[in-house]
Amino acid sequence: MKSTAEEPRGRGAERQGSRGAEARGAEVSKGIDRSQQNLVPSTPPLPCSSARLPLGSSAPLPLRASANSVIVAGIPVANLSEDEAVAVIDRLISEGGSHYGAVVNAAKIVAAESDEKLKRALLEADLVTADGMAVVWASRLLGQGLKQRVTGIDLFELLVDHAAKHGLSIYCLGAQEESVRGTVEQLTIKYPTLRIAGYRNGYFDESERQSVCDAIRLSRTDLLFVAMGSPKQEYWMASNVPFTGARFALGVGGSFDHLSGLVRRAPRWMQRSGLEWLHRFVQEPRRLWRRYLIGNTAFIWLVIRQRLRARRHSWRS
Ligand code: UDP
User: Fold this and answer.
1) Does the Cβ of 8 fall within 6 Å of ligand 1?
2) CA 253 to ligand 1 center in whole angstroms
3) pLDDT given at position 165
4) Could you tell me which of 245, 226, 225, 222 has the C-alpha nearest to residue 236?
5) Can you give the pLDDT at residue 274?
6) Is position 23 within any domain?
7) Is the CB of 239 under 6 A from ligand 1?
8) 252 C-alpha vs ligand 1 centroid, how far in Å?
9) Ligand 1 contact via 5 beta carbon (within 6 Å)
10) Within 10 Å of residue 158's Cβ, how many Cβ atoms?
11) In the sheet where 195-200 sits, what is the strand order?
12) Is 179 in the pocket of ligand 1 (CB under 6 A)?
């Protein structure tokens, strides 16, 4: 079955570019009049700015800390509840231009230590939230506890709900064809009025980059969900989101596999007690042992090092 891209519906509202000539060239008029939408009322301040440096640039890495973010091993993580994160994204959407967000767990933060391209993609994101409980625990140990975990899959589901209620369109990019198609089918059953701008599997090579971006741009989607695993999805968003015209893209990892029902998510009690990783590990021990064993050990070390440095700094001053 082929991926779809339906024609946009509704009233035209011209989008404003915010990322320079390339981004402006990629932006398209939208089929939504934002002024007539019932937007989320109280919007917390944006946790990050949306200025950008090109990937691979030798300029020093920008650190977008703000009152609303907690630095965990070098990565500013937004201190927002789930509802506040949706409100921030809604505000980014109404601002115009293209934006993207990522979620981080311990393994991704550790990977970013040695992968500058990933680190830059995370630092340049408009929003980064905590996907893993380890990140929330670390923030508490560092004395600035995050309010809660805002996982990729939960944010995905909340944003789909928000899109259905407010007439925003969505595009799903990533995973195997069966998985992404199954996700779209499930979402259509749950939200019959949801505007699905299109979908595409996540298995394409560099030579198809332009056509993938063009298809998304032509779909005139508001929200783009990118489920290609890490770091691939972060690299992809950092380089391509401006060319897709999507107003906000979110990296959602293996969410389509769960939403389509191909892979079962951990039961609620495991999610709440921070044991979701164990559920995933039992399902795919060969692939994940390195991520959890080495990743979590390295993460603990990074957090202890940050705490020791902060203490040393406070003794000196
Ligand atoms: N995937 C993809 N393209 C690729 C590699 C992976 O679309 O080139 C998809 C894969 O089918 C799966 C998801 O990315 O649906 C990776 O899920 P994972 O659970 O590994 O995500 P993470 O743990 O990195 O969030």
Assistant:
1) no
2) 6
3) 98
4) 226
5) 82
6) no
7) no
8) 9
9) no
10) 16
11) 127-130, 99-104, 248-251, 223-227, 169-174, 195-200
12) yes
**Enclosing domain of residue 172:** 63-316
Whether ligand 1 lies within 6 angstroms of the CB of 228 is answered as: yes
The domain total for the chain is: 1
- Is the CB–ligand 1 distance for residue 227 below 6 Å? yes
pLDDT at position 177 is: 98
Centroid of ligand 1 to alpha carbon of 30 (angstroms): 30
Q: Can you list the residues of the chain whose pLDDT is less than 50?
A: 1-43, 48-65
- The SS3 assignment for 115 reads coil
**Nearest alpha carbon, ligand 1 atom 16:** 229
Ligand 1, closest atom to CA 202?
Answer: 7
> Residue 35: its pLDDT value, please?
32
Distance 202 CA to ligand 1 centre (A): 8
In a domain, 262, yes or no: yes
Q: Which residues pair with 92 in a beta bridge?
A: none
pLDDT of amino acid 252: 98
Ligand 1 within 6 A of CB of 121: no
List, for residues 46-62, the tens digit of each pLDDT value. Answer: 554 333 433 333 344 44
The terminus-to-terminus CA distance of the chain in angstroms comes to: 64
Whole-number Å distance, alpha carbon 41 to ligand 1 midpoint, is 34
Please tell me the predicted confidence (pLDDT) of residue 44.
54
- Output the pTM of the full model: 0.81
Residue 136 lies in a domain: yes
Nearest protein Cα to ligand 1, atom 15: 175
Judged on CB neighbours under 10 Å (0-12, 13-18, 19+), 269 is exposed
- Domain contains 276: yes
Exposure b/e, 96-120, CB count within 10 A at least 16 = b: bbbbbbbbbbbbbbbbbeebeebbb
Q: For residue 148, what pLDDT is reported?
A: 94
